[in-house]
Amino acid sequence: MATLSSLNLVTPRAVASVPDSTKAGPVKVSCLNQPWKRVSQLGSRRMQVLRPVRAAPDRISEKVEKSIKEAEEACSGDPASSECVAAWDEVEELSAAASHARDRQKANSDPLENYCKENPETDECRTYDN
Amino acid sequence: MAAVCTVYTTQSLNSSCSISTPTKSHLGFNQKQVVFYSTGKRSSKRSGGSLITCSAGDSQTVVIGLAADSGCGKSTFMRRLTSVFGGAAEPPKGGNPDSNTLISDMTTVICLDDYHSLDRNGRKEKGVTALDPRANDFDLMYEQVKAIKSGVAVEKPIYNHVTGLLDPPELIKPPKILVIEGLHPMFDERVRDLLDFSIYLDISNEVKFAWKIQRDMAERGHSLESIKASIEARKPDFDAYIDPQKQYADAVIEVLPTQLIPDDNEGKAQPSHGFHAEGSSLALTLASNSPTALTVTSAMRLDELIYVESHLSNLSTKFYGEVTQQMLKHADFPGSNNGTGLFQTIVGLKIRDLYEQIIASKAATPLEATKA
């Protein structure tokens, strides 16, 4: 049972798809049959659990690029139209968001600093006055 | 096109900045008793309204408003301000990773974009910008800032700047100091009346353009034309809804373009004696009642800042060198070497001073009440 519950943590979706896992009987957990997959699954899962992922700057950059194209199109008819103005406002909003995302990435570039922010009590994060 | 090129070459643009306190010049930048007097006046105005607000007593939150257009240094200013109060400001732990809120021991900074009533699609459909009051829910903004100010936690919406959608709300507990930053902290009269102190970052169009070139030129899809087009398209709404808030601000940080030495195209550092001369004139104007308190017209070098600091008075520092220490701590922030960083830091110290005086006057009020 102990093994089972630890598996539950690793692959919650696989367990959820089993109709009633409390009943005794064969439990179909995919990683039991493919143990080599377990390590990588655990790895990727763990990354997500430790640090909620903010939007990557790349993703926002794509949006910035797209919004500029859209603004240029929206303004091709009447540059003073409200569609045109709103479209350029969207460009500004996304450009600012992209810049903030870059700043954050810069600020969070040290893995030890990041780890210690969340786990200040651990040995490797201890600081001494003298 | 010539105009564009001229501005483009001003990447090493020297900025001349000045802090002015337009209407209430007595409010934060003069002798302590004056500040004390003005806060006293404000609180008596508040309690003289109808009922005496004895809500939550001394736990009441001090509310500060910071208004500026997008891309004018609000985020940098917030980082400098929260640093003055000590401790790092972080997004809420375990919350929405795209939250706009920053929390430190003393301060909570909320972004007023969270009060957008129209999300990105809604604005697109209706053809309104985020600058337009119609895209913002001032009723909710007022209700929630009022609640926090009186010690009540609120479920504040989150505007997601990546998706352009409104995310599920987050819980905001009343901090010691609440900063509301965004496009419209002083637009709505009800919200404005809740502010204990307000700041407007007044960035001239030329400087805005230069800053946005620095910010966006590396971004794919952007060009000088797109940066210019965006500023120009937003300008009518900016002039109509954002700029007028300046008149209500307790402090205005104005950044104007200057070319100090016209022939100095390499952007060499200014001679330090000129720098010191500026410093001493600063001290004079800071102590006087003139509306323009402080002007820096020079590129600044952080390694010489301590000399400037020694020429300044009335900085509200707790120890000699505190301004320099704060500036060196964030040397990588934008504006560290052109005066804007210095101004932001000084305003941060003034806000800390104001906060401490409000707390002190609150502690004194109950005594007076029992006497009477």
UniProtKB/TrEMBL annotation, chain A:
Q: Where is the composition biased (Basic and acidic residues)?
A: 115-130
Could you tell me the superkingdom of the organism this chain comes from?
A: Eukaryota
Specify the CP12 domain's residue ranges.
Answer: 60-130
**Is Nucleotide-binding a UniProt keyword of this protein?**
no
Give Gene Ontology CC terms: chloroplast
Q: Which SMART domains match?
A: CP12 (SM01093)
Q: Where is this region: Disordered?
A: 95-130
Could you list this entry's UniProt keywords, alphabetically sorted: Disulfide bond
Matching Pfam families: CP12 (PF02672)
In the record, biological process GO terms are: negative regulation of reductive pentose-phosphate cycle
The SS bond pairs are 75-84, 116-125
Reply yes or no: does the keyword Disulfide bond apply: yes
Q: What is this protein called?
A: CP12 domain-containing protein
UniProtKB/TrEMBL annotation, chain B:
- State the UniProt keywords alphabetically: ATP-binding, Calvin cycle, Chloroplast, Disulfide bond, Kinase, Nucleotide-binding, Photosynthesis, Plastid, Transferase, Transit peptide
The main place the protein resides is plastid
Q: Where is the signal peptide?
A: none
Q: Does the keyword section mention Transcription?
A: no
Q: Which residues form the Phosphoribulokinase/uridine kinase domain?
A: 63-261
Query: EC number(s) on record?
Result: 2.7.1.19
Pathway(s) annotated for this protein in UniProt: Carbohydrate biosynthesis; Calvin cycle
Where in the cell does this protein reside?
Plastid, Chloroplast
- Give the molecular function GO annotations: ATP binding; phosphoribulokinase activity; protein homodimerization activity
Q: Which GO terms describe its biological process?
A: reductive pentose-phosphate cycle
Provide the protein name.
Phosphoribulokinase
In which organism is this protein found? Corchorus olitorius
Taxonomic lineage of the native organism:
Eukaryota, Viridiplantae, Streptophyta, Embryophyta, Tracheophyta
